[in-house]
Design a protein that fits this description.
The structure is a homodimer. Chain A is α+β, with helices and mostly antiparallel strands. Chain A contains 7 helices and 12 strands. Chain A has a 5-stranded antiparallel sheet, with no helix packed on it. Chain A has a 4-stranded antiparallel sheet with strand order 3-8-5-6. A 3-stranded antiparallel sheet of chain A has the order 10-12-11. The longest helix of chain A is centred in the middle third of the chain and has 27 residues. Chains A and B meet through β6, α2 and α3 of A and β6, α2 and α3 of B. Chain A binds a DNA duplex (30 and 30 nucleotides) through α6.
Chain lengths: ~260, ~260
DNA sequence: CGTTCTGTTGACCACGTTCAATCAGTGTGG
DNA sequence: CCACACTGATTGAACGTGGTCAACAGAACG
């Protein structure tokens, strides 16, 4: 599990990582190579250029970059965000173990958003230029990508609907529940047991604000109120969900959103 | 080109459509079968269960439905929207010619949003149950789907960022420009010439409001002001963009968003 | 110890909402 | 043919959610 990485900003950039072979990958069940049979796995692993470590606070890529790779996030949290010309930031998504990062329609072109590590991360890098080739050679990978893209699209659409139509309170409740359920889902898929209701959340209130479209000030107020109502409890870098039922009702959150079954 | 279909609501449901073979398909350049070679096209056409017509105002599917098909939109406009328990609606996307509709992570499960025709539409239906098979048999189709999904995801993310961080004026300007540019892109891809700045827009102010997260009242006010500033002009079911440059600046719109190049 | 970063609280303000009345266009039925 | 209903757009007035500005507190860190 990723430790809370705030304030640990090492000023080093990308580091070489461990070399876990795909066959032993703990998160393969929720990642791009899930449907690849063991006999083909050595071969597809050839597309993995490297495993690398990214320290907390470091950028995987910035808006406008044309990075050489796409990545599977092996461990840790990453935030994807856009910056408008006014300087305002919008967090699009919190990426977690298993998520595939850096793919976009124009593979040569510049990224439309930035990706920054929230905790120390481990990633597997795949050369962008060879992705088309990989999809052609192993259609089950392309199909898994399609499935993952559809899943991410649905999250994005729910997020969008929330921004348009929900109150501050509802949006924040929704975000907390979404994060909590996705963490549990990962714990399930990787065989690790979820430690009760307890969810370490390595994000600041400013991150929450940028994700749900509010100001940090108003997020603070709303969280204070939720604490007063015993809906949640906060410790440093952690949020405990005290009353999941009530929160689910407030947020209009449907847990089935997170439990989708793979295509293949 | 789709005619303005408002008020033409025929009370018939789905109708059988024309039978254009895929080889002659006018929009193949921007649709799922784009990368399929002509020699394979007859074969992939076997996955197309039917062509059908959908009258304006009719629903292709509703939230919670588990339709038997996915569709390529051949002609016309469709709006995709979610309804919250409070009754508020959020339009996720205006689908136009070439868009692939109805795909979601859990192909057996219920749709997370509804799709309703804005104009009379023509669609090509593909059985959901056979999509995995199609992707396996023709990886270039899976790859094209991946590309289209990434393109749609980017639109959704831009939309999301706008909802979080832009003013009413900026969001409306953005929506108008996005629609205009996508229409032009389709005109280019299908070889039809775009008729100047003129864009027939078969949507009501209420649709605009539901798309950008405002009330119809405030949309009316904002459009009135934009008309007063000669940024746009309105006729019945049409919007003319009078000052695209100014509008682009207001919206912080990047035309390159729409012009992405295919993966294969 | 100062500095920096994150969170908290207060006072005031504004963008967009809500409620309401009115109008134009369109289709319907007597 | 006209009265009527219905939908979409427009405008006005009052209101409220959340933003802005500001001061401050606590923790982490050099």
């Amino acid at each position: 599990m990723p430790q809370n990485g705030r304030g640990q900003a090492k000023r080093l950039s990308v580091l070489p990582g461990p070399h876990v072979p795909c066959v032993e990958c703990a998160i393969r069940n929720s990642a791009l190579f899930r449907p690849v049979s063991e006999e083909h796995l050595d071969w597809t692993q050839g597309y993995r250029a490297a495993q690398m470590r990214l320290p907390a606070q470091a950028h995987l890529y910035r808006e406008g970059d044309s990075p050489e790779y796409c990545w599977t996030l092996y461990d840790g949290w990453v935030k994807l965000y856009k910056t408008l010309v006014t300087g305002k930031r919008q967090i699009l998504r919190f990426a977690m173990a298993g998520d595939f990062l850096g793919f976009q329609p124009d593979l040569q072109g510049p990224m439309g958003h930035a990706a920054q590590a929230l905790t120390d991360c481990t990633l597997c890098a795949f050369p962008r230029a060879r992705l088309g080739e990989l999809f052609q050679a192993r259609p089950e990978v392309a199909t898994q990508f399609a499935w993952m893209a559809a899943r991410d699209m649905r999250l994005c659409q729910e997020h969008l609907a929330g921004m348009g139509k929900k109150s501050a309170r509802e949006r924040i409740a929704y975000l907390l529940l979404e994060i909590c359920h996705r963490q549990r889902q990962i714990a399930r898929a990787t065989g690790r047991l979820a430690p009760g209701q307890r969810v370490p959340v390595p994000i600041t209130q400013e991150d929450i604000a940028d994700a749900v479209g509010l100001t940090p000030v108003h997020v603070s107020r709303t969280l204070s109120q939720m604490r007063a109502e015993r809906l949640i409890a906060c410790a440093k870098g952690e949020v405990f969900i005290m009353n999941e039922e009530a929160l689910t009702e407030i947020a209009e959150f449907d847990p089935r959103l997170i439990e989708a079954r793979p295509l293949l």
